Amino acid sequence: MFSKGLAVLPAFAIAAAIMLIAWWPRHRKATAGANPRWAAPIALGLGFLIAFTIVAGQRGWMLAERWHWLAPIVMAATVLGVIAGLMCQRAAPQWICAALAAVATAGLLHVPPGASHPLMWKLATGGLMFGAWICAETLAARRPGVSTPIAWSMIFAGLSIVLLESRLANFSLLAGSVAAMLGGIAVVALINRTVTLSRGGAIIIATFLSALSIQGLLYRAEDAVQWPCYVPIIAAPWSMWIAEIPAFKRMRPWQLVALRIALVVLTVGAAAAVAMKQGEAASSGF
Length: 286
Hints:
single chain
């Protein structure tokens, strides 16, 4: 288990390195109109697949278990994210790539045997992915820089806790790796404030959220965390939009950043706290 826990470190390092190389501000004026948006899906996709290899081992690439299909799902999202990033000047390819990613995520999702209404779960996965993409894409386009990757990092850190309390250690490590990668991107955003997750990165982030959340709901131990704990995690991205209400426009930029992050912390923190309490109660037999 200790060696698997190391999956977070290479995921962080690889994502941060790729983003740093792609977004390094060699010439501040030159980089203003040349944003390598293809870098985010590559950084996140490659980092996740390396973490997946550490967690699942060789059997993971043999697709020996149903949850191992997370790898093909992420590979498809990475390719589509890169395409969206390369065609970042046009809006139509963004919608097409996101829709294809939603179809791929739903189609490649393997529902465990005995689960009721497997088609419903697939439709829910696709719908959740596309909805999360709309939220992530529009907000990332409005708010480049540090605050967006930090907020998303907190969301996946909270999801990691909920998955751990659901007795899904492997999924928890993967969600934690995503949180670490987004933290690495936030560090790069401190160097280059034009770093953005829109037009490419949002596709793979939405894929992570939908695939890991639905897998958690499907595979969780029923005597541990209850399904409502996942709802605040899924809703957390939309809480960031509260800071976009016109009533808050008079606030200073740093105050809006603080408000956006605080909203995520409150939403995700509530889910994590309840999950930990339920997990503790299940462990103690009460």
